[in-house]
Design brief:
The complex is a heterodimer of chains A (505) and B (366). Chain A has helices spanning 3-29, 77-86, 98-104, 117-128, 159-171, 187-190, 209-218, 257-269, 281-303, 344-351, 357-361, 373-377, 410-424, 447-457, 462-465, 469-479, 490-493, and strands at 92-93, 114-115, 134-137, 143-146, 152-156, 175-177, 179-180, 199-200, 223-228, 246-249, 313-315, 317-319, 322-323, 326-327, 336-338, 355-356, 371-372, 387-393, 396-398, 406-408, 432-437, 502-504. Chain A is an alpha/beta fold and 505 residues long. The termini of chain A are far apart. With 366 residues, chain B is mainly alpha-helical. Chain B has one domain (98-360): Orthogonal Bundle (ABC transporter involved in vitamin B12 uptake, BtuC), CATH 1.10.3470.10. In chain B, 73% of the residues lie in helices and 0% in strands. The longest helix of chain B is centred in the first third of the chain and has 37 residues, at 19-55. The radius of gyration of chain B is 22 Å and the shape is globular. Classes of the chains: A alpha/beta (505), B mainly alpha (366). At the A-B interface, helix 1 and helix 7 of A face helix 3, helix 5, helix 7, helix 8 and helix 11 of B.
Amino acid sequence: MDSKTTKVIVIIVAVIAVAAIAAFVLMNNNNGGNNDDDKPGSYSFRYMDLYEDEFDYWKLTRLAVLGNANNDTTIDSKDVAYIKNVIRDGDISYKENNNKYSELYMCDANSNGTINAEDAKFVQDMIDGKVTTIYYEKLLDGIGSYTPAKKTYLVPIHRCYARAAVLIANASDNVTIVGGDTQLEEDEFKSLIDFSKFESVGTTSTVSTEKISSLSAKYSDGNVVVMTGSTVNYCPDYEDKGTHAQYLRFISWEGDALTGLLTAAYLIDGVGNSDGKDGTAWGKAKEYEEWYLSYINLIKEQGAKVKESDKRTVLMPYLTPTVNGVDIPGGDQSSLTLRGNNTAEELFIENAGGINLYYEIGEPNSYGRVTYTMELLTKLTKKDILTDVIFMPTFFVADGTNPGAQAWDAEKIQACEDGIAEAFSRYIASDVDVYIKTWRLNGIPMIMDQIAIAKVLLPDNAVIEGLDVEKIWNEYLDLIGASKTSNLRFSNVFIMDEEPFHTLP
Amino acid sequence: MKRPNFSRFKSSSLDTTGAGVDELVHTYRHFRMRKLLFIVVIAIFLVILTGLSVGMGQYEISFHRVYECIWNLIIGYDDGSVDMSVVSVQRLPRLVGAIVVGCGLAAAGGAMQSMLKNPLADPYTTGISSGACFGATLAISLGALIGLGSYGTVVFAFLFALIPAAVILMLAAMKKCSPAMMILAGISVMYIFNALTQYFMLTMDEQDMAAAYQWTIGTLVKVTWSNLPIMIAIAAIGSVALFYMAKFLNAMNGGDAFAKTLGIDVQKIRILVLVIVSIVAAGIVSFTGVIGFIGMVAPHICRMFVGSDNRLLIPSAMVLGAALTVFSDIISRAVISVEVPIGVITSLIGGPLFLFLVLRETKEVW
């Protein structure tokens, strides 16, 4: 073989290598994005950050289904009128008027990238029950589509979605929980779910696509619907894995859990059912909304009365108890995080007239601002020493005497507190009240979190003091359809003392 | 395997004009047929393994239905069933990945062994896999800093896999560098990269360390339809190129001096083969992590059955490599409830099997 041939072969091989890398990079870049095809539903609004502060949508209680043009909690004739008003000066296209479209994307009911008369008609068809596919905001992942069916078989992944699933399934004869991750095998759910039809699909982080596929084959007379969170953390890209299931990704603890419940319930049986008939998931979700907002609005009212100078500042540390299944020693700074904004707790603190210290200094990440303590310490200044309250996370151990009963691991809590005291000793003033509080009861029962936080931040408020947590918990059980099947006591699943656990010296 | 007896065809007794030639041709054809038969048997075994592999899983699909689904896919017919989706989306990428990995690594190993005339030569002992592993570990360690997103690991693995190859190439360019020196250089580079990998792993947090560890033992879990075309293209083009080089490698089997008498530029061929092998191995392990033993075992076993003719050795090693990888993948999923990384299984099965065959083999194949 002469040298010329050798060179040619070397060049060919090198070109192949470079082309291979380039092709791989390009293929991985091509993960959706704007589609120029203007057919309904072809347009995916992937790159818009639905959690940008300018929208503050995470703070709103709303129905996150496209077509809910006025961003309230239902789809009705007001939305049709809203869209007609918006387009009175002409259509609004994402391509031609990006900024305006971004503000009004909820009007693009058929999700084709243009707000026009077709969207008003599409919304009217949603109200009349004539559409087959509807579009909604997936949590942190742009726009998703959903095709309702007469029968719905739910597979919630993570306990916070299971709680919404219980309400929806108990409200409608056409909806059944048929599977879920191993978290649903906890005591709390034993009396809430019919386990004779339940199949475990794996742990939260290792959900089996094959088991989901098995459920799809078994329940082929309807929709198998996996209810879960963002694709970053839950069932990543499972939509593309051929399971024949639909994936509903909605808010639970990342903002107002009610928004997630309303969205899921509407998608399942809200089309043609705007008024929320009895015996439907959408009807029950609307009932829950009314109950939930009655407490939220009451607390907001009381919180609004707190003067700026009297607002208590709050730190919400969260010590990750395990990483990859390995116990982290208590107080380990590398695993100590603070819960920040764009979370339900942030809303609850704000509602109750408090200030989340971290809100001022944290760095954004996918859920807003949750970061490691050691990073945070470098950003603290003198003004931050005004901390009044620390909500310490609980570390559960099952007590084994009552259904769902849990107690805290005092040793771990003490270790965590020692870690926090050491980390913040240079910054935190003395006499800081430390409360033990669970972060575990996330999802729709987070209303209990709100009430507990209000009781700490508004200690002298007679209205808040009058809120009976046991009574509210029983109302909650009644609403999710569990009062007859469950003897879950509030104190067994939610841990927070109204008195400080400790006061830092 | 029984060897053909050519002693009776020594020139003194050879009848070059009559039945002797016919018998010689017949015997040669028979011998060649047996070699081809070996490839066919392994290929049939691979087809059976395909059914077993794709049929395995928590979603139940019957053995014959697997082939029906695969046939439907080949003819472009989708019956819309869950079976079809499970086969085409969830299981086939892994199977095809296993076949590509097996073919590519075995072809690379076979060519490398012939080129360096050393049974220990393969992408692992020449440091290519270690380079890829270090590149991946470095990318995981640097995370977002490298700015390549989720495919930073693959790109880094590929680029670093070429470093040991470049070192060996530079050595090869030195006129007095023997094949043994090239192997030893590869092993020394492998140790350096292994040490660096271990160091970086020590400095990582638990999650990154788990990701890097997965890389060091190899896995097919991350093989998807989106990255398969690249793997297939690299393995296919590389294997064809190596097959094209087979006649030169055959000549080099007789020694460098003999090859030179045939007008072959030994040094250039060696460099060229090394470049191709490096790209094939790097292109594969950059997606799957280090999968050991296939590149060494498959060609070695084939050499026992088909001899040292690289025109048969390379394709047979590819088929056997694919079968071994698919078989290891089946075992990795079948033995216990938790999936064992395929790299562990290939070493666990390949090691004893290799040892058994080497001890049993009396024939001098090198």
